[in-house]
Design brief:
By secondary structure, this protein is α+β, with helices and mostly antiparallel strands. It is built from seven helices and ten strands.
Length: about 300
């Protein structure tokens, strides 16, 4: 009987010894709460024994962790609504885990990180207009990171300078509609300008062609008139030269010879002097028609 009780006692002690043994792995920190009072210290990796009746062991992860907040709403400097999914890489302060658990608890993501991230996004987007946010996302991320670091560091949460990533960044449907309408209007302006320039070029081409055609017709008429004038001048010069040659060749002796030849040929008659009652008359015989040959 005594041996049985001894075995029971040994078993209970062994169970209590095993239950009071706790392990802290690398990347973790632990704190102990004894009768509701937390130790003001964080314990690193190792194996710890404690009284499970009066003491509770609380372990937290101090490695880098990722926290994602989806569809956070914010407003830009020009009061345009934007939405973003933000991923934060953070880590808990390994030397202040007991303070985090005492002041916030294990729900620090919901109580601290999420509202701080939402507030940091709004603070960052307020510095940019909607067009600037789209073009300068790196600067926006820097602004959000600085704002987030300032808000979570008092709660023993660390965020590195490159710990914030903006994903699925969207603007409001109204803004996208306005941008689309603006693009359509700009495209219409470009199309109208091109059409006007094309019509202008076509009109200039037609005017140039008409001007060239008119110039060609005028040149043709000018050439034709010049040719006609040259022909008349040549003809007049030829006639004048011919008349001059004829005039130079008609000497008085030649004229008498021509008259004698004409009278001799019967084409002309030598005037005859006829005496009449009134005196002497000059009778010019008329040419006689040539006699018809006898059949």
């Amino acid at each position: 009987m005594r041996m049985t009780w001894l075995r029971v006692v040994v078993g209970v002690v062994a169970v209590l010894a095993l239950a009071a043994c706790g392990q802290v792995d690398p990347g973790e920190r632990a704190t102990f709460v004894t009768w509701g009072t937390m130790d003001q210290k964080c314990y690193g990796q190792g194996l710890y024994w404690y009284n499970p009746i009066s003491t509770n062991m609380d372990v937290v992860d101090t490695q880098v962790q990722a926290f994602e907040a989806k569809n956070l709403a914010a407003a830009t400097r020009d009061l345009q609504e934007v939405h973003a999914t933000v991923v934060v890489n953070y880590a808990l302060d390994p030397d202040a885990c007991h303070k985090l658990l005492a002041e916030v608890g294990h729900a620090y993501r919901e109580k601290v990180l999420y509202p701080a991230l939402q507030d940091a996004l709004k603070a960052g987007t307020a510095h940019f207009a909607i067009g600037e946010i789209i073009k300068e996302r790196a600067k926006l991320r820097e602004e959000v990171t600085k704002a987030l670091q300032a808000r979570v560091s008092p709660f023993y949460i660390r965020v590195n300078d490159n710990g914030v990533n903006l994903t699925n960044f969207d603007v409001s449907k109204a803004y996208m509609g306005a941008v689309e309408q603006k693009q359509i209007a700009e495209q219409n302006v470009i199309t109208s300008t091109r059409n006007a320039e094309g019509a202008k070029a076509q009109a200039v081409g037609i005017a140039d062609a008409a001007r060239e055609a008119a110039k060609g017709a005028a040149d043709a008429r000018r050439v034709e008139a010049q040719a006609t004038a040259d022909a008349l001048r040549i003809e007049a010069a030829a006639r004048a030269d011919y008349n001059a040659r004829i005039s130079a060749s008609l000497t008085p002796i030649l004229i008498q010879n021509r008259a004698i030849d004409a009278w001799s040929a019967g084409g002309s008659q030598v005037p005859q002097i006829v005496a009449g009652q009134g005196g002497l008359l000059l009778q010019v015989p008329m040419p006689q028609p040539a006699a018809k040959p006898k059949e």
